[in-house]
Amino acid sequence: MKALIVFAHPEPDSFNGRMKSVAVETLAAMGHEAAVCDLYAEGFDPLEGPKHFPQRAAVERFNAQTEQHYAATHSAVSADVRAMIEKLDWAELLILQYPMWWYSVPAILKGWLDRVLVYGSIYTTEMRYDKGRFRGRRAMLSVTCGGPQGSYAENGRNGDVNLFIWPTNYTLYYVGYTVLPPFLAFGVMPPAAAAQEPQAKAHLTATEERYRQHLRTLDARSPLDFNKWGDWDSSGRFKPDVEIHNAFSRFAKAGHG
Amino acid sequence: MKALIVFAHPEPDSFNGRMKSVAVETLAAMGHEAAVCDLYAEGFDPLEGPKHFPQRAAVERFNAQTEQHYAATHSAVSADVRAMIEKLDWAELLILQYPMWWYSVPAILKGWLDRVLVYGSIYTTEMRYDKGRFRGRRAMLSVTCGGPQGSYAENGRNGDVNLFIWPTNYTLYYVGYTVLPPFLAFGVMPPAAAAQEPQAKAHLTATEERYRQHLRTLDARSPLDFNKWGDWDSSGRFKPDVEIHNAFSRFAKAGHG
Lengths: 257, 257
Known about the structure:
By secondary structure, chain A is α/β, with parallel strands linked by helices.
């Protein structure tokens, strides 16, 4: 299997960097090929905008979808995005490794989604969800959270962590991926703070080992359930009596609300 | 009242740009002062990282919180972030105007959160939530969505749109803001697509008018409910029988899960 790890942290020697290396080592030991895309080190530009589109569909005003579609259909996608798409086409497993910053992905990873998932190439109105370009490939989030696990529980002050990663998971499904359950690391403190906590090092070591186990047992894990084209009507509403599969599906039933 | 509109779209002449202008005009007509921070036009750098911290707490490896805290306590916050914080200190109302890209904020706005909400200055372990720095000030999201409203309903294929904006709303509350109900615009298509839909122009004009009404009646709108310090224990879990107020609170009860 070919695996691509997209790494979104400014410090290679961070715990996120360690997790990236754990994935490379573990997957290699399993006989897989693992490649890393280090967004900070590669200087990836996260800002979608006119500068990436020297050939324009509409010069008078910039619209991202319009220009992405034009570039995709006129062999004019920028070189950095094309290189990323080639890597995605190569990979049978995609891992996004990042720290949760403000309950979401860091800006560099958000910009990677904004720019690389090109309208007209990676998705179209017809090529989405279970008909998405990357169908048959798997993707997985590996996320570190500074806060304690309890605060990210359903009855924690932040609420269920699955709701914070749902936008990214649903994005992966949108472009066709089979989305595996995330690996979540909690209580990942800055080095200075961790140094003052005697149990912090042991906690991080145990987290690394838990990640190794997670990776070794990927094939045994059921992917997340998502609804399919046939489940909704033309306005995007679920048909009556469809079972809803999303981050909050245990609360929701089609036909209500 | 002093209002700051943080505008996160690459095209001034977009519908988002129009919404920004509608806010400026409407607030001015109400006798308020309105200022705009145009992140793309100002060339805001969204990437948190070592380059913004010439004076380092720890040179051997970069940790964002560690360096933010050091900069905040050593008068070494970068000039662009300091200028942003001055604007936030000036504003009694903060509006974030952005298009929903991949179920989240555009990278430039994510990076604005990542960099401007400085640990040690804008928040500390003790200065958060209802004890946050911006307590007494109001904030509001104004978001455009390309998809139809039905797809963002609780029984729509994307699920309740409030779950997608919850990370940003909760971030605003985290730093102390009183968060007003968002203004949400659905079915905002690219200009080329809209030109082919006879009703698209009328829809956008009606959306603008709905936004004017939203702004004129801000004072009558109840802010979002959030839980307070006293509602959770030291691990961040809600105390038994606390009523949970968050984006999915109508589904949740403390003590369960």
